[in-house]
Amino acid sequence: MSKETGIRERKRAETRRAIVAAATALFLDRGIAATSIEDIAAGAGVARRTFFLHFPSKEDVLFHYLEAHVRRAVLTLDDLPAGADTAQGVRAVMTAFVDLFEDPRVGTDALADLRAELVTASRGLPASLVVRLQRAQTDLVGALRERFPDRAGWPLMSAHLGACMGGATAAAVAVERPEDRAAAIREAVDRASAGFVA
Fold first, then answer.
1. Tell me, which fold does domain 3-58 have in CATH?
2. What averages of pLDDT result for each successive group of 10 residues across the chain (198 residues)?
3. Fewer Cβ atoms within 10 Å of its own Cβ: the N or the C terminal residue of the chain?
4. Where exactly are the structural domains of the chain?
């Protein structure tokens, strides 16, 4: 990577962080519906056009963490022992994913109530979130296939991951008390895994 590319990437990351910070503050203060993209752009000190270079909609800011969490979860596969099986691989990535969601230093949970509210209000997952979750699942399956190259195990491994992700997503939006969210997600992942563990 050239020095110029590195500077450009760093500036892009800084702009994205500023948009996320502005949107988070505004969403928590006013709610999603009362916050416009213009408000977020002004709060971040960027043009409206710049907002759209980073996010397709204001709702997408609520899920800004997803791709970074997937990248970090994939790294846990490197720590598995040599004889690990696919079920252990799925559990490793899902445990890392939930740990990141719960980690206060990461701050993922700050907007969890608003995400749940959005899902409830739209009577299902917003289309942009469905696309992001599909992409996340595709990336995780790709990493798991790389780690476990025996094609015979891929269908069950993919089903296991899908069950865990579906359970985690459903649990995240179904709990009424925010303090119960992480435990509900963990329980959903445990129950989703039960049928896949030999």
1. Arc Repressor Mutant, subunit A (1.10.10)
2. 78 91 88 91 96 89 82 93 94 89 64 70 71 88 96 95 90 80 90 86
3. C
4. 3-58, 65-194
Do residues 87 and 66 touch, judged by C-beta distance below 8 A?
no
Rounded to an integer, what distance in angstroms lies between the CA atom of residue 111 and that of residue 18? 16
C-beta separation of 173 from 116 below 8 A: yes
CATH number at 65-194: 1.10.357
Helix (H) or strand (E) holding 19: helix 3-30
pTM of the model: 0.76
Is residue 97 a contact partner of residue 161, using CB atoms and an 8 Å limit?
Answer: no
SS3 state at 90: helix
Q: Which two tokens stand for residue 108?
A: 């993922």
Residue length, the chain?
198
Neighbours of 120 (CB within 10 A): 11
Using an 8 Å Cβ cutoff, are 80 and 147 in contact? yes
